[in-house]
Amino acid sequence: MSAISIRTAIPGPRSRALMARRHAAVPRGISHAVPVFAESADGARLTDVDGNVFLDFAGGIGVMNVGHSDPQVVSALKEQAERFTHTCFSVAPYESYVALAERLAAITPGAFAKKTLLVNSGAEAIENAVKIARHATGRPGVLCFEDAFHGRTLFALSVTSKVSPYKAGFGPYAADVHRVPYAYCYRCAYEEKFPSCAFACVSSLEDHFKRYVDPQTIAAILVEPVLGEGGFVVPPLGFLTELAKVCRKHGILLIADEVQTGFGRTGRMFACEHEGIEPDLLVTAKSLGGGLPLAAVIGRAELMDAPGPGGLGGTYIGNPVACAAAHAVLDRFESGDLLRRSETIGIRIEARARAWAQRFGVIGDVRRRGAMVAVELVKSRETKEPAKHETDDIIRMACERGVVLIASGTFGNVVRFLTPLVISDDELDEGLEVMTECFAAVAPQPTTH
Ligand SMILES: Cc1ncc(COP(=O)(O)O)c(C=O)c1O
Fold this sequence. Notes:
Blueprint lengths: L12 H13 L12 E5 L2 E4 L4 E4 L2 H4 L8 H13 L11 H13 L6 E6 L2 H16 L3 E5 L8 H6 L3 H5 L9 E4 L19 H12 L6 E6 L15 H12 L2 E5 L23 E4 L10 E6 H4 L15 H16 L2 H22 L3 E7 L2 E6 L10 H13 L2 E2 L1 E3 L5 E3 L8 H18 L7
Parallel strand pairs: 3-13, 5-6, 5-7, 7-8, 8-9
Antiparallel strand pairs: 1-2, 2-3, 4-10, 9-10, 11-12, 12-15, 14-15
Helix pairs in contact: 3-11, 4-11, 8-9, 12-14, 13-14
């Protein structure tokens, strides 16, 4: 029996009416991937206010790795809400925060003493990781990457790459931010090929340190192990290892932004594990809270202790209801086979995407790490001109046919998959079949090369 059930035009009448109210009451600066309003969600299914049932291939932007309304998560947060919802950890602390700090320190890469700061969002965690790195090293600079995304607060935006719509009009940005190309092999900034390039994107850092900035002033290199919003760009294995060497040589800290890659998205709990990398500080959020706002900075104890009492904090940091949800998320990972499932889902999506690439010339590149699969659309495989409109058309058509999808990429031309890891094979295949129809409608011409 099919999971998708579309009963009205998309958007349906109730969603349309709500959208009219939304436009009057909410700033236009917040955009929506799909024009339907949610009523309920369960596992990998999302029901809108008109009774249409969609397969959710977006997972609230990578937040629902354990699935919507997971019974363990729901019961944990209900139970906590009945006891207390807030005391402020900086006023009256509670055990669940401490226990979560311990658990996160135990599961993150690095066999050294660690401490954990819990905050509310990915951006807030990035802000704090940089504060800690600066305090610990006494250095001001941060080196970050082209096509990176680290959030929407002002420092997080300073290290974010994409100009429109994220940065344009919101400056000035923080000083001492230095940006270099990522290992985006499909669009290599050095026009090299892997592996003959020998990681030119990393070795060029030494040149950067001669021409642009003194490495002794750099506190940290901030890197996503796989670019998220930047287009699910999967660097060749070895990229992070080479970066870590540069860090060690110059006394620079390595901060891994695992906000999107964390909690099983790449088939490992954290994407750094694919290379055995031990970042000095690891930032995570999204699927940690199973849908509740929660983020963490986990790092070497001596670095985390650099700021003095009162130097870190916030009213809502590590909210007890969010902590309860996170404990249930960790239980789900410990007792289930979600990590294996992540790899299996990824393999299944990639196989279908490669079949699409055989048929549809609009597909320029398919890449994957675990369940993090990207399909990059181009107008021509020779010029690699990004096909943003075609990508938008696919997202729109998929929604009309019952699949919630989102795009990514600096050029907005990458279809990405962020399905809950609990999606069944039947649900996944049904959604992928819908996408085949969408690609056929957008790019009917056969591949010629
Ligand atoms: C890699 C990465 N870092 C940071 C953030 C910011 O997280 P938040 O939206 O929770 O502030 C995001 C959000 O998409 C992200 O993908």
